[in-house]
User: Which sequence fits this backbone?
């Protein structure tokens, strides 16, 4: 029986060579293009998704490895695009070109789920793997801090 | 500028645009276009369209390309302000490539706002006047008795209202007013405010599609590898192993196309997904004939450029008598500055979809210049430019790289070979190794200073592969015109000579955000600091003195605005309290005028041993009227991020003709933990607005070098200061 993977709450059959990185399974097979290709070697973070809730670089993880597991992409982060991070991103007008932002948000979401009250230094450390060439870092830091406060209220 | 009511024009029906309501086309006069080198024939070429539908939905077509600079929000917001539109009713559509409809669309040189601001406002004002005229006619009152507010025209006599939707069709029958009155600054609703980008919702939801994201039935995916050395060729190719891979459809030789924006030459693989194509590329057995540039080595080349500027070179321009001034000088000072190649490295690698069919060619591309795609593909396919249909997607960063459409031409070659739509995505490695680079450069300055500390003579030699070398391989040094920014720099120095040193072409040079302003700004700003130290003045005083010595009435505005920016940067930063900084901290200041915009920066650093940490940057900007304060601030933040990396460590290195860097691990752009606190301060002087995409890069490297010197006494004269190892 073919292996399956759960993506954003839906089950998909893995009908490709198992060594294909998850990134290309998402983009070219499922046409979920919110997850971006940036470097292909896990050094830029544009392809970040959640694997069982943990931020993972989808460009280097073979799709066979995620069989039976749960993947969340930017398209599935929130039901109404109202995750506190997404709201904080809009409020602080973070994006310029926007290409890296899905990866930034996914990385930040996983980080905040583990560290709901981060210091600025902890944000720096957690977000170091995500490159933004337009230079939106200052706003990313503010947005993550604000989202952390918002998440704190929700608990 | 011409505004034409095109509501009944045939092309509206033909182009698939919605029929009905009010359509206005905006065309710039050819004089304005000629000024920025984009003259067109004397026909009505709208640069933008406004459509007000009968339900009030308002659509603004943006002809300029969006790559994150915010132009597709800024310009439409200027239309909407004059139109008295309800912003929530306005949507924005990126126009397809079509010079006949939109006029020149090439987006570069920080020109969009400079050129389009007034025309866009006038178009909005014209549409408003026509809506008011329509309402006045309906109510049988004078237009003076009506006013517009938030998508309604209101009758002053009885406060009755008609919506823009109700008026649109009637307005389409009104004449376009010959003269329109623009709003007073106090009445702006959107201009100068901080409207959010129109597409940011789709960005945070992952819905916005870029050049890499186009999908369609029957789409095939491709990867490419290029000859690593510029002007090299394919010698032999064994494609057996690649073709044996499951999912690989074709291996295609792509010869070098001998035009500046054509393919550098390589081999492409078409497969049923991108990853398979990328894997198959690795299985190709290729032998290259490396050609005439196989010995290009940037370390040796840079050393040669230094020699070329430290000895007499070819005169570019001269005024006064520098020999006499040097003979009378109290102080003489000289320094040599260098800079390396840079790669644009936008986060979205080069990508497009092209579908070449017998009678059509359709393109979906992240691009800065759809017209160049039309030209290059027309030439490649032996067709007419108008027969190449280009859909412009959002670009995931560009910085000058996506002005050149070699990647689109390659996709066309692959589509032609497999007779299907092909999406070609370059790998990061190909983007880094076979791009169009910011030029390696060297500059040597000698100055004479008199008893009172006035700079009396300036000899400036520069050597770099100019942009001109992209278009003509015989160009062996920068032409005199490329040094005019040195000669015309608003420093008040009477005796000046500029010279251009030999710099033969060995790679592809292409516009990189801010272009020559990166190294000219570095040399002027750093040398000013060095002169100040020589004569025992502070840099701000010395700079003000040099500007005050400029008595040329033609440069009075440049002098005033440069000084204004400097003063603001000093005031907003810790410049005046720099004596109180901790011992390992220092502040540096510099100003640079480029692309008609003035930016001064005060940079605060902390230096511990060899480690340089940028703490704070205060940017003082004079770009005239600011269209969107938030977006303008973002441009400063971005300029600081890019300039910090290129000042401190990023450099493209060539050895044996080929680029050694390959990806972000050895082309280490800035990361979040190194982000300084950036503050942008705008001089709100009501002058005509100018662009901001590039000018932020000019002053930063010098301000940083000056700050490090203030903190540590160590002077960095080479960009990058501490090259990362590759």
Assistant:
């Amino acid at each position: 029986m073919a292996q399956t993977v759960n993506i954003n709450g839906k089950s998909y059959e893995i009908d490709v060579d198992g060594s294909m990185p998850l990134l290309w399974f998402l983009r070219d097979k499922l046409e979920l293009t919110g997850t971006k290709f940036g470097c292909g070697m896990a050094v830029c973070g544009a392809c970040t998704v959640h694997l069982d809730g943990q931020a993972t670089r989808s460009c280097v993880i073979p799709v066979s490895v995620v069989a039976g597991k749960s993947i969340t992409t930017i398209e599935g982060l929130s039901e109404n695009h109202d995750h506190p991070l997404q709201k904080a991103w809009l409020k602080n007008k973070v994006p310029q070109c926007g290409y890296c932002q899905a990866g930034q948000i996914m990385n930040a979401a996983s980080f905040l789920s583990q560290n709901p009250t981060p210091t600025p230094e902890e944000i720096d450390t957690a977000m170091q793997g995500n490159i933004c060439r337009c230079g939106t870092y200052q706003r990313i830091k503010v947005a993550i801090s604000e989202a952390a406060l918002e998440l704190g209220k929700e608990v | 500028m011409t505004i034409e009511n095109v509501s009944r024009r045939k092309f509206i029906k033909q182009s698939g645009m919605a029929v009905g309501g009010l359509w206005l086309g905006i065309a710039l006069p050819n004089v304005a276009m000629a000024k920025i080198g984009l003259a067109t024939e004397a026909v009505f070429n709208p640069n933008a369209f406004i459509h007000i539908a009968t339900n009030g939905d308002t659509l603004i077509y943006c002809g300029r390309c969006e790559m994150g600079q915010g132009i597709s929000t800024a310009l439409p917001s200027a239309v909407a302000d004059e139109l008295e539109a309800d912003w929530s009713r306005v949507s924005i559509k990126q126009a397809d490539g079509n010079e006949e409809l939109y006029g020149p669309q090439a987006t570069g040189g920080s020109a969009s706002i400079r050129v389009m601001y007034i025309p866009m406002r006038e178009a909005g004002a014209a549409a408003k006047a026509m809506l008011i005229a329509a309402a006045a006619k309906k109510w049988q009152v004078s237009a003076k008795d009506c006013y517009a507010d938030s998508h309604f025209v209101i009758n002053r006599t009885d406060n009755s209202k008609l919506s823009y939707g109700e008026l649109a069709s009637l307005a389409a029958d009104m004449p376009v007013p010959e003269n329109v009155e623009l709003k007073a600054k106090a009445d702006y609703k959107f201009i100068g405010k901080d409207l959010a980008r129109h597409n940011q919702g789709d960005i945070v939801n992952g819905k916005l599609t870029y050049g890499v994201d186009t999908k369609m039935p029957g789409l095939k995916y491709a990867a490419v590898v290029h000859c690593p050395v510029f002007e090299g060729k394919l010698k032999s190719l064994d494609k057996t192993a690649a073709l044996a891979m499951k999912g690989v459809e074709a291996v295609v030789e792509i010869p070098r196309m001998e035009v500046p924006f054509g393919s550098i030459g390589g081999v492409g693989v078409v497969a049923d997904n991108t990853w398979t194509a990328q894997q198959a590329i690795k299985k190709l057995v290729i032998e290259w004939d490396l050609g005439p540039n196989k010995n290009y080595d940037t370390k040796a080349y840079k050393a040669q450029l230094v020699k070329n500027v430290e000895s007499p070179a070819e005169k570019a321009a001269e005024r006064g008598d520098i020999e006499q001034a040097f003979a009378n000088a109290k102080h003489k000072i000289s320094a040599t500055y260098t800079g390396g190649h840079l790669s644009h490295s936008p986060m979205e690698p080069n990508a497009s979809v092209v579908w070449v069919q017998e009678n059509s060619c359709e393109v979906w591309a992240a691009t800065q210049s759809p017209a160049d795609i039309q030209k290059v593909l027309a030439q490649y396919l032996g067709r007419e430019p108008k027969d190449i249909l280009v859909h412009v997607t959002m670009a995931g960063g560009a910085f000058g790289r996506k002005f050149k459409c070699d990647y689109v031409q390659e996709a066309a070659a692959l589509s032609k070979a497999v007779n299907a739509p092909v999406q070609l995505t370059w790998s990061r490695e190909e983007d880094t190794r076979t791009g169009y680079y910011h030029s390696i450069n060297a500059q040597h300055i000698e100055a004479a200073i008199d008893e009172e500390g006035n700079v009396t003579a300036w000899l400036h030699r520069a050597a770099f592969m100019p942009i001109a070398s992209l278009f003509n391989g015989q160009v062996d040094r920068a032409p005199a015109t490329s040094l005019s920014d040195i000669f015309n720099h608003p420093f008040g120095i009477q005796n000046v000579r500029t010279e251009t040193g030999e710099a033969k072409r060995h790679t592809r040079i292409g516009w990189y955000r801010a272009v020559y302003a990166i190294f000219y700004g570095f040399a002027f700003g750093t040398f000013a600091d060095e002169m100040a130290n020589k004569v025992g003045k502070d840099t701000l005083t010395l700079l003000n003195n040099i500007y005050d010595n400029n008595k040329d009435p033609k440069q009075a505005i440049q002098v005033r605005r440069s000084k204004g920016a400097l003063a603001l940067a000093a005031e907003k930063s810790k410049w005046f309290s720099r004596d109180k900084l901790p011992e390992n901290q220092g502040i540096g200041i510099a100003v640079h005028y480029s692309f008609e915009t003035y930016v001064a920066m005060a940079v605060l650093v902390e230096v511990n041993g060899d480690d340089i940490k940028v703490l704070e940057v205060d940017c003082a900007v004079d770009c005239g009227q600011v269209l969107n304060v938030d977006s303008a601030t973002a441009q400063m933040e971005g300029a600081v991020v890019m300039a910090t990396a290129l000042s401190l460590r990023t450099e493209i290195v060539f050895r044996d003709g080929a680029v050694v860097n390959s990806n972000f691990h050895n082309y280490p752009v800035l990361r979040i933990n190194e982000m300084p606190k950036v503050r942008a301060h705008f001089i709100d002087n009501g002058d005509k607005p100018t662009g901001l995409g590039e000018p932020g890069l000019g002053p930063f490297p010098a301000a940083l070098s000056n700050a490090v010197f203030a903190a540590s006494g160590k002077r960095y004269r080479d960009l990058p200061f501490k090259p990362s190892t590759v």
About this structure: DSSP finds 21 helices and 29 strands in chain B. The longest strand of chain B covers residues 597-608.
